[in-house]
Amino acid sequence: MKILFSVNPGGLGHATRSLAIAELLKKKLRRAQIEIITGNSSAELFRAHTFKVHDLYRFVPYTIINGKMRFHSIWFLRYALRYMKEKNSARKIVEQFKPTLIINDQDLAIIPSALELKIPIIYITDVLGIAFAKNPISQIWENYLNNALTNLINSCDLVLMPLEGKSHGKTKRLGPIVRETKKTREELRKEFNFTKKTILITGGGSEYGEFIVKKAVQAAQNFSDADIVIVWGPGLRKKNYDSGNIREFETIENLYEYIYASDLVITTAGRSTISECLVYGTPFIALPIGNHFEQVPHALAHGFKFEDIYNLENLIEKSLNQPRAQRKSSSTERFADEIVKFSHEIRN
Protein backbone atom coordinates (compact mmCIF):
# COMPACT_ATOMS: atom_id res chain seq x y z
CA MET A 1 0.00 0.00 0.00
CA LYS A 2 1.21 3.49 -0.85
CA ILE A 3 0.20 6.43 1.37
CA LEU A 4 0.86 10.04 0.48
CA PHE A 5 0.62 12.35 3.50
CA SER A 6 0.10 16.02 2.58
CA VAL A 7 0.80 18.43 5.45
CA ASN A 8 0.14 22.16 5.80
CA PRO A 9 3.55 23.92 6.14
CA GLY A 10 2.38 26.70 8.48
CA GLY A 11 4.41 26.59 11.71
CA LEU A 12 5.05 23.14 13.16
CA GLY A 13 1.63 22.38 14.63
CA HIS A 14 0.34 20.43 11.64
CA ALA A 15 3.67 18.68 11.20
CA THR A 16 3.99 17.50 14.80
CA ARG A 17 0.50 16.00 14.91
CA SER A 18 0.87 14.44 11.46
CA LEU A 19 4.26 13.03 12.44
CA ALA A 20 2.69 11.36 15.48
CA ILE A 21 0.10 9.70 13.23
CA ALA A 22 2.60 8.77 10.50
CA GLU A 23 4.93 7.07 12.97
CA LEU A 24 2.05 4.97 14.31
CA LEU A 25 0.99 4.06 10.77
CA LYS A 26 4.50 2.74 10.07
CA LYS A 27 4.03 0.32 12.97
CA LYS A 28 0.44 -0.65 12.16
CA LEU A 29 0.85 -0.89 8.37
CA ARG A 30 4.33 -2.37 8.17
CA ARG A 31 4.22 -2.99 4.42
CA ALA A 32 2.94 0.46 3.60
CA GLN A 33 5.16 2.91 1.76
CA ILE A 34 4.62 6.39 3.21
CA GLU A 35 5.81 9.62 1.59
CA ILE A 36 5.24 13.20 2.76
CA ILE A 37 4.42 16.42 0.90
CA THR A 38 5.01 19.55 2.96
CA GLY A 39 7.49 22.43 3.12
CA ASN A 40 9.57 24.84 5.16
CA SER A 41 10.60 23.62 8.64
CA SER A 42 7.95 20.88 8.51
CA ALA A 43 9.96 19.15 5.78
CA GLU A 44 13.05 19.17 8.02
CA LEU A 45 11.08 17.59 10.87
CA PHE A 46 9.87 14.67 8.77
CA ARG A 47 13.32 14.13 7.25
CA ALA A 48 14.78 13.92 10.75
CA HIS A 49 12.41 10.98 11.32
CA THR A 50 13.58 9.21 8.14
CA PHE A 51 10.50 9.85 5.99
CA LYS A 52 10.89 10.53 2.28
CA VAL A 53 9.78 14.15 1.88
CA HIS A 54 8.70 16.24 -1.10
CA ASP A 55 9.59 19.80 -0.05
CA LEU A 56 6.92 21.55 -2.11
CA TYR A 57 4.62 23.80 -0.11
CA ARG A 58 5.44 27.31 1.07
CA PHE A 59 3.58 29.07 3.85
CA VAL A 60 2.06 32.45 2.99
CA PRO A 61 3.13 34.80 5.84
CA TYR A 62 0.62 37.04 7.55
CA THR A 63 0.92 40.80 7.76
CA ILE A 64 1.34 41.42 11.50
CA ILE A 65 1.27 44.96 12.89
CA ASN A 66 1.62 45.40 16.67
CA GLY A 67 0.67 41.78 17.21
CA LYS A 68 -2.48 41.88 15.07
CA MET A 69 -3.19 40.34 11.69
CA ARG A 70 -4.01 42.92 9.02
CA PHE A 71 -5.22 42.83 5.41
CA HIS A 72 -7.01 39.47 5.63
CA SER A 73 -8.46 39.67 2.12
CA ILE A 74 -5.02 40.22 0.62
CA TRP A 75 -3.68 37.23 2.55
CA PHE A 76 -6.44 34.97 1.26
CA LEU A 77 -5.83 36.21 -2.27
CA ARG A 78 -2.13 35.37 -1.95
CA TYR A 79 -3.09 31.98 -0.51
CA ALA A 80 -5.39 31.36 -3.49
CA LEU A 81 -2.54 32.13 -5.89
CA ARG A 82 -0.26 29.74 -4.01
CA TYR A 83 -3.00 27.11 -4.07
CA MET A 84 -3.33 27.33 -7.86
CA LYS A 85 0.41 26.89 -8.33
CA GLU A 86 0.96 24.15 -5.78
CA LYS A 87 -2.03 22.02 -6.75
CA ASN A 88 -0.39 21.57 -10.16
CA SER A 89 2.94 20.62 -8.58
CA ALA A 90 1.18 18.24 -6.18
CA ARG A 91 -0.57 16.60 -9.14
CA LYS A 92 2.82 15.67 -10.64
CA ILE A 93 3.92 14.02 -7.40
CA VAL A 94 0.64 12.10 -7.14
CA GLU A 95 0.94 10.84 -10.72
CA GLN A 96 4.53 9.75 -10.12
CA PHE A 97 4.01 8.08 -6.72
CA LYS A 98 0.58 6.58 -7.54
CA PRO A 99 -0.69 6.38 -3.93
CA THR A 100 -3.43 4.02 -2.80
CA LEU A 101 -4.52 6.55 -0.18
CA ILE A 102 -3.97 10.27 0.42
CA ILE A 103 -4.04 11.73 3.94
CA ASN A 104 -4.24 15.49 4.09
CA ASP A 105 -3.61 17.62 7.18
CA GLN A 106 -5.34 20.91 6.38
CA ASP A 107 -3.73 21.74 3.06
CA LEU A 108 -6.11 22.00 0.15
CA ALA A 109 -3.70 21.81 -2.78
CA ILE A 110 -3.76 18.04 -3.12
CA ILE A 111 -7.55 17.49 -2.94
CA PRO A 112 -8.26 18.21 -6.65
CA SER A 113 -5.68 15.58 -7.69
CA ALA A 114 -7.26 12.98 -5.43
CA LEU A 115 -10.72 13.69 -6.85
CA GLU A 116 -9.66 13.77 -10.49
CA LEU A 117 -7.60 10.58 -10.18
CA LYS A 118 -10.23 8.88 -7.98
CA ILE A 119 -7.84 8.27 -5.08
CA PRO A 120 -9.47 7.93 -1.63
CA ILE A 121 -8.61 10.87 0.64
CA ILE A 122 -8.77 11.45 4.39
CA TYR A 123 -8.85 15.07 5.56
CA ILE A 124 -7.55 16.02 9.03
CA THR A 125 -8.67 19.45 10.22
CA ASP A 126 -9.84 21.54 13.15
CA VAL A 127 -11.22 24.26 10.86
CA LEU A 128 -14.52 23.95 9.00
CA GLY A 129 -14.95 27.65 8.25
CA ILE A 130 -13.25 31.03 8.48
CA ALA A 131 -14.41 34.43 9.74
CA PHE A 132 -12.47 37.59 8.98
CA ALA A 133 -14.83 39.96 7.17
CA LYS A 134 -14.99 43.54 8.42
CA ASN A 135 -17.03 45.10 5.60
CA PRO A 136 -19.53 44.07 2.87
CA ILE A 137 -16.85 43.57 0.21
CA SER A 138 -14.71 41.28 2.37
CA GLN A 139 -17.93 39.49 3.42
CA ILE A 140 -18.49 38.48 -0.21
CA TRP A 141 -14.94 37.16 -0.41
CA GLU A 142 -15.32 35.35 2.92
CA ASN A 143 -18.57 33.67 1.80
CA TYR A 144 -16.94 32.55 -1.44
CA LEU A 145 -13.96 31.04 0.41
CA ASN A 146 -16.18 29.28 2.95
CA ASN A 147 -18.32 27.76 0.21
CA ALA A 148 -15.21 26.57 -1.62
CA LEU A 149 -13.75 25.13 1.60
CA THR A 150 -17.01 23.35 2.45
CA ASN A 151 -17.22 21.81 -1.03
CA LEU A 152 -13.63 20.57 -0.86
CA ILE A 153 -14.07 19.06 2.60
CA ASN A 154 -17.37 17.41 1.65
CA SER A 155 -15.65 15.81 -1.33
CA CYS A 156 -13.24 13.91 0.95
CA ASP A 157 -14.04 10.32 1.90
CA LEU A 158 -13.37 10.73 5.62
CA VAL A 159 -12.86 13.82 7.82
CA LEU A 160 -11.02 13.40 11.13
CA MET A 161 -10.98 16.24 13.66
CA PRO A 162 -8.66 16.59 16.70
CA LEU A 163 -11.55 18.00 18.74
CA GLU A 164 -13.88 16.71 21.41
CA GLY A 165 -17.56 16.32 20.59
CA LYS A 166 -20.04 14.22 18.67
CA SER A 167 -19.25 12.64 15.31
CA HIS A 168 -21.63 12.95 12.37
CA GLY A 169 -21.53 10.73 9.31
CA LYS A 170 -18.07 10.75 7.74
CA THR A 171 -16.88 13.54 10.06
CA LYS A 172 -15.40 12.09 13.24
CA ARG A 173 -14.28 14.08 16.28
CA LEU A 174 -11.60 12.02 17.98
CA GLY A 175 -9.86 14.34 20.46
CA PRO A 176 -6.37 15.93 20.57
CA ILE A 177 -3.36 14.51 18.74
CA VAL A 178 -0.21 14.63 20.88
CA ARG A 179 3.11 12.82 20.80
CA GLU A 180 3.41 10.85 24.02
CA THR A 181 6.42 10.30 26.25
CA LYS A 182 7.04 7.17 28.29
CA LYS A 183 9.04 9.13 30.86
CA THR A 184 7.61 10.48 34.09
CA ARG A 185 7.54 14.22 34.74
CA GLU A 186 10.11 13.78 37.50
CA GLU A 187 12.47 11.96 35.12
CA LEU A 188 12.13 14.74 32.54
CA ARG A 189 12.73 17.52 35.07
CA LYS A 190 15.90 15.77 36.20
CA GLU A 191 17.01 15.25 32.60
CA PHE A 192 16.43 18.93 31.72
CA ASN A 193 17.87 20.14 35.05
CA PHE A 194 14.66 21.90 36.03
CA THR A 195 15.12 22.63 39.74
CA LYS A 196 12.86 25.67 40.17
CA LYS A 197 9.42 26.65 38.94
CA THR A 198 9.86 26.59 35.18
CA ILE A 199 8.16 28.91 32.67
CA LEU A 200 8.35 27.70 29.08
CA ILE A 201 7.81 30.38 26.42
CA THR A 202 7.30 29.24 22.83
CA GLY A 203 7.21 31.46 19.74
CA GLY A 204 6.42 29.04 16.94
CA GLY A 205 8.87 30.67 14.54
CA SER A 206 6.66 33.50 13.30
CA GLU A 207 6.97 37.28 13.43
CA TYR A 208 4.12 37.28 15.95
CA GLY A 209 5.89 34.58 17.95
CA GLU A 210 8.86 36.89 18.36
CA PHE A 211 6.48 39.63 19.49
CA ILE A 212 4.93 37.52 22.27
CA VAL A 213 8.23 35.99 23.38
CA LYS A 214 9.65 39.44 24.05
CA LYS A 215 6.51 40.49 25.95
CA ALA A 216 6.43 37.23 27.92
CA VAL A 217 10.11 37.38 28.89
CA GLN A 218 9.69 40.97 30.03
CA ALA A 219 6.88 39.88 32.36
CA ALA A 220 8.42 36.57 33.47
CA GLN A 221 11.70 38.19 34.51
CA ASN A 222 9.83 39.73 37.44
CA PHE A 223 9.60 36.22 38.95
CA SER A 224 13.17 35.80 40.20
CA ASP A 225 12.41 32.43 41.81
CA ALA A 226 11.52 30.88 38.42
CA ASP A 227 13.62 29.62 35.53
CA ILE A 228 12.66 30.68 32.01
CA VAL A 229 13.07 28.46 28.97
CA ILE A 230 12.57 30.10 25.57
CA VAL A 231 11.96 28.12 22.38
CA TRP A 232 11.89 30.69 19.58
CA GLY A 233 10.89 28.33 16.78
CA PRO A 234 12.28 27.78 13.28
CA GLY A 235 13.33 30.92 11.48
CA LEU A 236 13.92 32.99 14.62
CA ARG A 237 17.37 33.52 16.13
CA LYS A 238 18.21 33.45 19.80
CA LYS A 239 18.55 36.87 21.40
CA ASN A 240 21.10 35.77 24.04
CA TYR A 241 19.41 37.31 27.06
CA ASP A 242 21.97 38.29 29.67
CA SER A 243 20.39 36.48 32.60
CA GLY A 244 21.37 33.41 34.57
CA ASN A 245 17.83 32.08 34.84
CA ILE A 246 17.05 32.12 31.08
CA ARG A 247 17.81 29.30 28.67
CA GLU A 248 17.22 29.80 24.94
CA PHE A 249 16.74 27.34 22.07
CA GLU A 250 15.91 28.03 18.44
CA THR A 251 14.08 24.70 18.17
CA ILE A 252 13.56 21.61 20.33
CA GLU A 253 12.46 18.39 18.66
CA ASN A 254 10.92 17.01 21.87
CA LEU A 255 9.04 20.17 22.81
CA TYR A 256 6.13 18.07 24.11
CA GLU A 257 8.41 16.67 26.84
CA TYR A 258 9.49 20.17 27.83
CA ILE A 259 5.81 21.11 28.04
CA TYR A 260 5.18 18.18 30.38
CA ALA A 261 8.18 19.06 32.55
CA SER A 262 7.34 22.78 32.83
CA ASP A 263 5.11 24.47 35.40
CA LEU A 264 3.67 27.02 32.97
CA VAL A 265 3.63 27.42 29.19
CA ILE A 266 3.17 30.77 27.47
CA THR A 267 2.44 30.26 23.80
CA THR A 268 0.60 31.46 20.74
CA ALA A 269 -2.90 30.06 20.36
CA GLY A 270 -2.05 27.29 17.91
CA ARG A 271 -4.08 24.13 18.36
CA SER A 272 -1.17 21.68 18.75
CA THR A 273 0.67 23.37 21.64
CA ILE A 274 -2.60 23.94 23.49
CA SER A 275 -3.46 20.25 23.00
CA GLU A 276 -0.09 19.21 24.43
CA CYS A 277 -0.67 21.38 27.49
CA LEU A 278 -4.15 19.92 27.99
CA VAL A 279 -3.00 16.32 27.62
CA TYR A 280 0.01 16.75 29.94
CA GLY A 281 -1.90 18.85 32.48
CA THR A 282 0.43 21.86 32.30
CA PRO A 283 -1.12 25.28 33.00
CA PHE A 284 -0.82 27.59 29.99
CA ILE A 285 -1.45 31.11 28.74
CA ALA A 286 -2.52 31.22 25.08
CA LEU A 287 -1.97 34.56 23.33
CA PRO A 288 -3.58 34.68 19.88
CA ILE A 289 -2.52 36.76 16.93
CA GLY A 290 -5.00 39.64 17.07
CA ASN A 291 -7.80 39.30 14.48
CA HIS A 292 -6.60 35.82 13.46
CA PHE A 293 -9.47 33.69 12.12
CA GLU A 294 -8.20 30.48 13.83
CA GLN A 295 -6.21 31.56 16.85
CA VAL A 296 -8.69 34.03 18.34
CA PRO A 297 -11.47 31.42 18.80
CA HIS A 298 -8.88 28.83 19.98
CA ALA A 299 -7.73 31.18 22.74
CA LEU A 300 -11.23 32.33 23.64
CA ALA A 301 -12.32 28.73 24.17
CA HIS A 302 -9.79 28.57 27.02
CA GLY A 303 -10.50 32.00 28.46
CA PHE A 304 -7.75 34.04 26.78
CA LYS A 305 -7.73 36.99 24.39
CA PHE A 306 -5.16 39.12 22.56
CA GLU A 307 -5.31 41.90 25.17
CA ASP A 308 -3.98 39.49 27.82
CA ILE A 309 -0.52 40.18 26.46
CA TYR A 310 -0.68 43.47 28.38
CA ASN A 311 -1.65 41.70 31.62
CA LEU A 312 0.93 38.94 31.59
CA GLU A 313 2.49 39.53 34.98
CA ASN A 314 -0.83 38.99 36.77
CA LEU A 315 -1.66 35.97 34.60
CA ILE A 316 1.75 34.39 35.24
CA GLU A 317 1.38 34.78 39.00
CA LYS A 318 -2.11 33.26 38.90
CA SER A 319 -1.07 30.40 36.61
CA LEU A 320 2.05 29.46 38.60
CA ASN A 321 -0.18 28.96 41.64
CA GLN A 322 -2.68 26.90 39.67
CA PRO A 323 -2.62 23.14 40.36
CA ARG A 324 -1.71 20.85 37.48
CA ALA A 325 -4.50 18.94 35.84
CA GLN A 326 -4.32 15.17 35.64
CA ARG A 327 -2.50 13.80 32.61
CA LYS A 328 -4.86 12.60 29.90
CA SER A 329 -4.50 10.16 27.04
CA SER A 330 -3.78 11.39 23.53
CA SER A 331 -6.13 10.39 20.71
CA THR A 332 -3.30 9.69 18.26
CA GLU A 333 -3.97 5.96 18.46
CA ARG A 334 -7.63 6.56 17.58
CA PHE A 335 -6.62 8.54 14.49
CA ALA A 336 -4.22 5.82 13.36
CA ASP A 337 -6.84 3.11 13.95
CA GLU A 338 -9.46 5.01 11.90
CA ILE A 339 -6.98 5.34 9.04
CA VAL A 340 -6.03 1.67 9.22
CA LYS A 341 -9.70 0.68 9.25
CA PHE A 342 -10.38 2.88 6.22
CA SER A 343 -7.34 1.50 4.39
CA HIS A 344 -8.68 -2.06 4.85
CA GLU A 345 -12.10 -0.98 3.54
CA ILE A 346 -10.73 0.50 0.31
CA ARG A 347 -8.61 -2.60 -0.35
CA ASN A 348 -11.57 -5.00 0.04
From TrEMBL:
It comes from the Archaea. One of its GO terms (molecular function) is hexosyltransferase activity. InterPro entries: Glyco_trans_28_C. Residues 198-320 form the Glycosyl transferase family 28 C-terminal domain. It holds the Pfam family Glyco_trans_1_3. Belongs to the glycosyltransferase 28 family. This is Glycosyl transferase family 28 C-terminal domain-containing protein.
